[in-house]
Amino acid sequence: MSAPFGGSGRAAGGLPRLPTPPTGWPIGSYATYGEAQQAVGFLAEKEFGVSDVTIVGVDLMLVERVVGRLSWGRVLGTGAVSGAWFGLIIGLLLGMFNNQGFAWQPMIGGLVLGILAWTVFAAISYSMSRRDFSSASQLVAGRYDVLCQPRSAEQGRELLAQLALGGRPTG
């Protein structure tokens, strides 16, 4: 059976075009993504075929870390600074493409309009949400499993056992 628009159903690089559950046998399980990356790096150093390997995050959680307190002053100040940068860039572009050489008026106009617009947008957004804190969201997993295609899973498991023993060969 062929894909509806031609091709093999896989994107360049061998990845599936649609969300697809991972396949393979578990060869290692780690508490952090960094440890799972280190394990795959170790496999690569040992010239293992890492194209057979997948890192899978299990027990996903959305973690929202509070990074600071919000106030009207901070919201309006941040809006004004963001608007100033945007306005300067637009004004600079308009000033550069002026037929009479570079003009300062578009830059100053862009700066003023950017500050006003972004400050108003920030005020409206803050008044609608009324969250008194800012935060950053991150998707994390409870553990990270390293899966490998069955044809080389046993070799991968043996190599990761060496890593667990401190990188010394077993046997």
From TrEMBL:
Residues 1-12 have a biased composition (Gly residues). The keyword Transferase does not apply. InterPro entries: GSP17M-like_dom (IPR025889). The chain crosses the membrane at residues 75-97, 103-124. It holds the Pfam family YflT. It comes from the Bacteria. The keyword Transmembrane helix applies. Residues 27-99 form the General stress protein 17M-like domain. Keywords: Membrane, Transmembrane, Transmembrane helix. Residues 1-20 are annotated as: Disordered. This is General stress protein 17M-like domain-containing protein. It comes from Amycolatopsis roodepoortensis.
